[in-house]
Design brief:
The complex is a heterodimer of chains A (69) and B (398). Chain A is an alpha+beta fold. Chain A is built from two helices and two strands. In chain B, the strands form three sheets. Chain B has a five-stranded mixed barrel with strand order 1-2-3-5-4. Chain B has a five-stranded parallel β-sheet with strand order 7-6-8-9-10, with helices on both faces. In chain B, strands 11-12-13 form a three-stranded antiparallel β-sheet, with no helix packed on it. Classes of the chains: A alpha+beta (69), B alpha/beta (398).
């Protein structure tokens, strides 16, 4: 799922949680789902797993890519 | 030859005269020359020599003026300075005290840039319908800049802080000098040809107007305009501009700002996630509190209802029981009456009187003994015959 879809789902869950007609059991499982999603997003966004690389060579068609960091 | 002044002058008096003459006579000057022997002091003042092919003059620019100059002069730069003459009495030297400095030919450069700007606009490089929005969540950002420049470090730092999961690809380019425009354009074309990234930052750190000129060359402007990968420019400082900025999909004032623009959505997303997570928790807590209150209320109501129904059913049982008790009593009584009548009947059936009433009689002696056999009844014996309704005296004949 993309970031936008995840966020949309969490917003949906927040909306449902704010409605008192949602049965408590459903609310609890919704809450668990929402928290799992936010944890996942926080992890994806905050994880320092980036690759920094650099293109080598001077030819347009030949781009050898090597790690920089 | 007459003396200029009467009497003798001390060195100080002469120097003072010279100082006054020069300083009052030479002010509001504009001087063009080439920078030489540039010596910035640790305190921020600039000392240098201004020269042309035939002459040179010492020059100073104090910190208060120097910080306003948007480039750092270097050997050979042709500059126009404005200022006045200043005499340094202790050494008997004069120098040019500069208030402002700009690169010579700046006016010509500006005019040339204006001319090119119109031309490029005519060629459609700047047209608004070419502009594409930046992808909010790029997977990899390409950076066309000098691999050794401070701009790259700034960009990497900003991206690391704001979007630590975002991959970066450096497309190394020469960013000043004759080769610059060609290599910058080549890297932009390369990124597009090989689809190397989702968004491109094209930029360099601050420099003189000439330093930034490659970013106003047609090859660069055209490459940016034709790039299918959205381009953000971050060229020089806030005050600088290059024609590449007009062709870019988004113009940032500095390389760092370009990196910020590219990572905006990540930061916003992080904030949304944080605030949504807080919202979820708050709502769940509210929901639980509500449920708890409901539970307590339900408890009391349930108990009351339970007790009432318990009492009701017991009352019913009680009423039932009392009714059955009455019935049972009644039944018992009628049963008893029946039995009584039956027993009476049986009793009556056993009574000798009942037998007598069917036509029998009991023979008794006068003293009341029952005479049951003929041997007991002697002839001429007077006996009593007992009938159901009374007695008769009789005599046995034989």
């Amino acid at each position: 799922m993309s970031f936008e879809e995840d966020i949309k789902r969490i917003e949906e869950i927040a909306q449902k949680l704010s409605t008192s007609t949602t049965p408590l059991e459903e609310a609890i499982s919704l809450y668990e789902e929402g928290m799992t999603l936010t944890k996942k997003l926080e992890k994806t966004l905050g994880e320092a797993k980036r690759k920094v690389e650099m293109v080598q060579g001077q030819e347009i068609e030949q781009a050898e890519i090597t790690p920089l960091e | 030859m007459s003396n200029l002044l009467n009497g003798e002058l001390s060195v100080s008096e002469l120097t003072s005269l010279i100082k006054r003459t020069l300083e009052e006579g030479f002010y509001g000057l504009q001087v063009t020359g080439e920078i030489s022997n540039f010596r910035p002091s640790s305190t921020g003042h600039w000392f240098f020599t201004l020269k042309d092919s035939n002459a040179s003059i010492g020059a100073v620019m104090f910190k208060g003026s120097a910080w306003r100059v948007d480039f750092t002069p270097k050997e050979g730069d042709r500059v126009v300075v404005s200022g006045s003459l200043d005499v340094y009495a202790a050494r008997g030297t004069y120098q040019l005290k500069c208030d402002s400095m700009r690169l010579a030919g700046f006016g010509e450069i500006l005019a040339e840039l204006e001319r090119r700007k119109r031309l490029f606009a005519e060629r459609g490089y700047f047209s608004a319908d070419r502009k594409r929005p930046l992808p909010p969540y790029p997977g990899r950002v390409g950076v066309v800049t000098s691999p050794s420049g401070a701009a790259l470090q700034d960009i990497l730092n900003v991206l690391e802080r704001r979007a630590p999961s975002l991959d970066v690809l450096v497309l190394p380019a020469v960013v000043q000098g004759d080769q610059a425009a060609q290599t910058i354009a080549m890297r932009i074309e390369q990124a597009n040809a090989l689809m190397l990234c989702d968004v491109l930052i094209v930029g360099r750190g601050g420099g003189s107007v000439e330093d930034l000129l490659p970013f106003s060359e047609e090859v660069v402007v055209k490459a940016i305009a034709e790039s299918t990968i959205p381009v953000v420019t971050g060229i020089g400082h806030e005050v600088d501009f290059a024609l590449a900025d007009f062709a870019a999909d988004l113009r940032a004032p500095t390389p760092s700002a370009a990196a910020e623009l590219v990572s905006t959505a990540f930061v916003q997303l992080s904030e949304s996630v944080r605030s949504l997570s807080a919202t979820l928790s708050a709502q769940m807590l509210g929901r639980l509190t509500l449920a708890q209150a409901q539970l307590q209320r339900t408890d009391q109501m349930m108990l009351a209802r339970h007790l009432t129904s318990l009492i009701d059913s017991k009352e019913f049982q009680l009423a039932n029981a009392s009714a059955s008790l009455t019935n049972a009593q009644r039944e018992l009584m009628s049963q008893t009456e029946g039995r009584l009548a039956l027993l009476k009947g049986q009793l009556q059936a056993l009574s000798p009187v009942a037998i007598l009433s069917r036509g029998y009689a009991v023979v008794q002696s006068i003293d009341g003994k029952i005479i049951a056999t003929k041997e007991d009844a002697k002839p001429d014996q007077v006996v009593d015959l007992r009938f159901a309704d009374g007695k008769r005296r009789a005599r046995i004949e034989e």
